[in-house]
Amino acid sequence: MAIGGNAILRANEMGTIDAQLANVKETCKHLAEMVKGGYKIIITHGNGPQVGNILLQNEEARGKVAPMPLDVCVAKTQGQIGYMLQQALKNELIKYDLDNKVISLTTQVVVDGNDPAFDAPTKPIGPFYIKKRADELIRKNGWIMVEDKMRGGFRHVVPSPQPIDIVEKESIKLLVFDKEDKIVIAAGGGGIPVIRTKEGFKGVEAVVDKDLASVLLARIVNATSLIMLTDVEKVAINFGRPDQLDLDKITLDDAIKYLKEGHFPPGSMGPKISAAIQFLEAGGEKVIVTTPNSLKKALKGRTGTRILP
Ligand code: ADP
Ligand code: MG
C-alpha cells in the first residue's frame, strides 16, 4: 500500500495536525478493514507536501535555527507520518479486535550520485505559489519552480533520482516475515536518499518518489499487489482535457504505450505508472491506483484503475 502524501495533506491546505490526522484516520479505517478481511499489508507513504513545509520552516527560521539538508527533512517526515499512521492504524485495528503490531522503520534508500535527476529536478514538494511569490523564492532561495497548470500554481521542484536499493531491507524482512502479524511502515517519503561512498552511506539532497521506492519494498517482501492510494479515483489519458478518458482496466502493454505517449507527467502520475510497469515486469500480479475512500470498491474491481500483466 503506497499512500500518497497528497492523500494525507493536500498541497493547498494549511496542514494543521488535526487536518492531517483526520485524513490519516480516514485512510486507516479502510486499511484496517482490509486487514480484517485477511489481507497482509506493508505500508509506505509519500511526503511531498510535508517535506515542502519543513523546507519552508527552514527558510523562515534562517539565522535562528540551523537549516537541515533535504535528507534530514525526509527523515523528519518519516517520523511524523509514521507516527500518525502508527497511532491511527492501531486505533482502527483495535475497533476490529485485531492486535497486529504496527511499526514504522526509518529507512534509507540508495541512489546513484551521478543520476541525471540531480541536474534536472522534477519532483514537486510543498505548497502551490502564485507567480509573484514563486519569482521571489527563485531569487531568494535559488529554488527551481515549475507551473502546474491543472492544479493552478507554481511549485518548488527537487531532484528525484531512481532508488536502487533499500539499506534496511533485511530488517524489513525480519519484521514482515515474523510469526506475529506485524504491519510495517517503511521507505516513507521514498526513503532517505543516500549514496555509497568509500566512507560508507551518506545523505544527499533529493526526494525519491515513493511510488518507485514502493516497488523495491514490494519486491523485498514478494508482494503480489501494489496499491497506490492518491487523490484521483482513476488514472486517465488526455488528463485535464475535454477528451479525458478515465481508465478502468489496462494491461502492462497499454501502460507502457500511454506512458510513452506522454499521458503521465513526471513528478505525479508518471512515477506511479513507471512503478506499475516495473512491478508487473518483475512478476507482480496486480496494480491498483485509486483514492483511500474507494479502496474497498476498487479491491472488488468496481472502481479505480487496475493494471494487469
Ligand atoms: P501522490 O501524493 O498521491 O503521489 P501526486 O500529486 O504525485 O500524488 O499524483 C497524483 C496527481 O497526478 C493527481 O492529483 C493528478 O492531478 C495528477 N495527474 C497527472 N496526470 C494524470 C493522469 N493522466 N491521470 C490522473 N491523474 C493525473
Ligand atoms: Mg506523487
Question: How is this structure best described in words?
Answer:
It contains ten helices and 17 strands. It is of the alpha/beta class and 309 residues long. The chain has two domains: 1-110 and 164-195 and 205-222, 3-Layer(aba) Sandwich (Carbamate kinase), CATH 3.40.1160; 224-309, 3-Layer(aba) Sandwich (Carbamate kinase), CATH 3.40.1160.10. A hairpin with a 2-residue loop joins strand 10 and strand 11. The structure holds adenosine-5'-diphosphate and magnesium ion (MG). Magnesium ion binds at residues 4, 46, 48, 268.
Descriptive tags:
binds magnesium ion; binds adenosine-5'-diphosphate; 309 residues; Carbamate kinase; 10 helices; alpha/beta; eight-stranded mixed β-sheet; four-stranded mixed β-sheet
* Small molecules bound in the structure, each named once: adenosine-5'-diphosphate, magnesium ion
Share of β-strand residues = 15-25%
Shape: globular
**Terminal-residue CA separation:** 19 Å
Low-pLDDT segments? none
- What kind of sheet is the major sheet? 8 strands, mixed
Quote the CATH topology of the largest domain: Carbamate kinase
> Can you tell me the number of structural domains?
2
Provide the helix percentage: 25-40%
Structural class: alpha/beta
Number of DSSP E strands: 17
What is the name of the CATH superfamily of the largest domain?
Acetylglutamate kinase-like
Write the H/E string, N to C. Answer: EHHEHHEEEHEEEHEEEHEEEEHHEHE
Radius of gyration: 19 Å
What is the average per-residue confidence, as pLDDT, rounded to a whole number?
A: 94
Question: Helical element count?
Answer: 10
CATH class value of the largest domain? Alpha Beta
Which CATH architecture of the largest domain would you pick?
3-Layer(aba) Sandwich
Enumerate the strands of the largest sheet in spatial order, edge to edge or round the barrel.
3-9-2-1-12-16-17-15
